Amino acid sequence: MSKIYFPIIIAMAVAIGLLLGSKLNSSNQNNFLSKSSKRNKLNKLIDFIEREYVDEINTDSIVDLTVNGILENLDPHSVYISRNELQAVTESMKGDFVGIGVNFYMYKDTVAIIKTIKNGPSEKAGIKAGDRLLFADNHQLFNKKLQNDSLFSRLKGERGSTVVITLYRKETNQKLKIKVKRDVIPIKSVDVALKVSGDVGYIKINRFAETTYDEFHEGLMALKKQGIKKIIIDVRDNGGGYLEVAVQIADELLKDKELVVKTINKKGREDKTFATEKGYFEKGEVFVLINENSASASEILAGAIQDNDRGIVVGRRSFGKGLVQREMPLGDGSAVRLTVARYYTPSGRSIQKPYDDKAEGYFNEFEKRFQSGELYEADSIKVADSLKFKTKKGRIVYGGGGITPDVFVPFQAKHGEEATFMIMRSGIVSYFVFEQLDRDRKFFNSLTKEELQKEVTDTDKYLNAFKKYVSDSGILINYSQKEKILKYLYAEFVRQVFDENSYYEIILSEDAMIKKVLEIESEKIE
């Protein structure tokens, strides 16, 4: 909807087996027994609590707290994922799940369909936007405070299995029963691939999952057929994902044997990954868009393009995550995502920012960067002269905390407006538009895009309704940039009535970074 791992017990057992099967001197044995004794404290304490503690205690939750406590002493990216959270994380990174294919939210204690997934099971079965789901088989879905995981479990299932959905269609005042055959539902990691101007294409990547390379390649090939010769790759607000996938995408753009990334693990082993000869876009111009929330795999891609002088990185300094994690199951359905190496860009830069402060401030530097002026002035970006590196052609780049762009584009919201534009990109806009459409879908579905634009933007009717909606939600925002707010509202109406591509065409027409890229291109022509 328009809005995420080292088995300790097994590892210990393996270690014990290897140790006991070796010829050890007594000092090594004593050292091992000492460490083992300390580890056994945890097991003993939990056993004591289970057997003797006066009140009933969920010892599973105590174990979770203990694991989290241990990981808090490591780096900020070594984290524990509980059994309940792991399925959602796995599905997100796998890139699909089995379900009925709907975007929904709980509207007045009822599951309301915002949109069906194109060519998905629900659309094929005849479910429509605006429908309310009442029952999944015999399980009631309304007037209940259902948790999301409980609701999902009713709609998900085995591929090919069926579920009978009882729904209410407000538009025709009908109660219907529709049988839906569950199927694989993709979770898109490439939001859109479209032309933005002339021979310039645009691809937006929201994360690096198992399916991302295939999605990217498909979008790139479609754009090449449309005659694009330049590509904008947007990884703004992309927190990363699989390193290997970022490498695959970089390989489409770099020449054979160009270095993509280097990793070094605890033992000092150095692994270098190079591009191959298979790239499908090794000659066209490349632009990579980044911002303060572009991290990890996004920075690998941007760093590879920058250090090989393959293209231009546009935007604001990236997050600064140069640590590589591996997900390791703990045997009970939970997992730990453990940092196992550091990565370096082709010029040798480690872009991991300091993590002495592992609290909230590490993950949310927005306020700090705002206070320093970095979001508005390139000269305010602090770089360490001692961490100078050179690109393939000898340009100076810096390590020590994120990728500094080649072309800086300031944050567009003025002071006091930051929250407004975060809200305009959030789910609350989607819910507001759904409720407006829900008043008279027949009317809205009869409009062309031009007629819809006039309906939404020619008066303050929808702006005033949105103000009240937001205010009733307990949120205060700044409405000084009225035209931009109306454009976001219109774009969301278009997304729900028409399609995703049209939404992006509207939003990108006002995007400062896209404008900067097109400005760079026009200057070349002149």
TrEMBL record:
Alphabetized, the UniProt keywords read: Hydrolase, Protease, Serine protease
List each copy of the Tail specific protease domain by range: 173-354
Q: Which SMART domains match?
A: TSPc (SM00245)
Domain of life here?
Bacteria
Q: Name one Pfam family in it.
A: PDZ_2
Query: Which NCBIfam families does the UniProt record give?
Result: prc (TIGR00225)
- Similarity field: Belongs to the peptidase S41A family.
**What protein am I looking at?**
S41 family peptidase
Lineage, broadest ranks: Bacteria, Pseudomonadati, Bacteroidota, Flavobacteriia, Flavobacteriales
